[in-house]
Amino acid sequence: MKPNLTQEKLVLASHNAGKLREIADLLRPYGVRVTSAGELGLLEPEETETTFTGNAILKARASAEASGLPALADDSGLAVDALDGQPGIYSARWAETDGSGAAGGKRDFGFAMERVQRELDGQSDRSARFVCALCLYWPNGDKLVYEGEVRGTMVWPPRGTRGFGYDPMFQPDGYETTFGEMDPDAKHAISHRADAFRKLVADVFDEK
């Protein structure tokens, strides 16, 4: 039996405004009523896992248990091939100018992109991928997990003011524009989050 997400609110287990906006946009066609962890006053759990999937499960479980509602969490980041997959699960932490690692700390992704560029100085390989893990978690402990990715190239200087995070520096394979330059609908069609979300939709919403 497919999970029913149309009879009650779904908690988006994130305090990241960019992620919340993208996930809400992806869910809109399916009539799901959404709220966010921030709107409910839920605390951000410390991300102690070593993988995107592990952190997605951790965040979704925390919001589901605290709210009594099903929760959807995203853990995603940038993995640069020449940097052995860094920044990876620490993608947001690379944007913390004070290096504190504290949840909810001030983040500057201009600073983070400059760091990526410095680390890539002298490297001929600028290939990278965005990775996304989604976890849908129910208060009874049931869960569904999906992973997606999109490959591309790191460009410099950054281009575009759309999107968020490292988007202005990431040019997806087969395109001449960065995520920061793309219309949001175009990005939603090909992004790592969209890839994972398509798999969720096939399980939860699509007719079999």
TrEMBL record:
Alphabetically ordered keywords of this record: Hydrolase, Magnesium, Metal-binding, Nucleotide metabolism, Nucleotide-binding
Superkingdom of the source species: Bacteria
The family this protein is said to belong to: Belongs to the HAM1 NTPase family.
Residues annotated to bind substrate: S14, H15, N16, A17, G18, K19, S76, F164, G165, Y166, D167, K187, H192, R193
The protein's name: dITP/XTP pyrophosphatase
Main function: Pyrophosphatase that catalyzes the hydrolysis of nucleoside triphosphates to their monophosphate derivatives, with a high preference for the non-canonical purine nucleotides XTP (xanthosine triphosphate), dITP (deoxyinosine triphosphate) and ITP. Seems to function as a house-cleaning enzyme that removes non-canonical purine nucleotides from the nucleotide pool, thus preventing their incorporation into DNA/RNA and avoiding chromosomal lesions.
Gene source species: Denitrobaculum tricleocarpae
A Pfam family the protein falls into: Ham1p_like
InterPro entries reported for this sequence: dITP/XTP_pyrophosphatase, ITPase-like_fam, RdgB/HAM1
Enzyme nomenclature, EC number: 3.6.1.66
Residues annotated as binding Mg(2+): E46, D75
GO cellular component: cytosol
Cofactor note: Binds 1 Mg(2+) ion per subunit.
Active site: D75
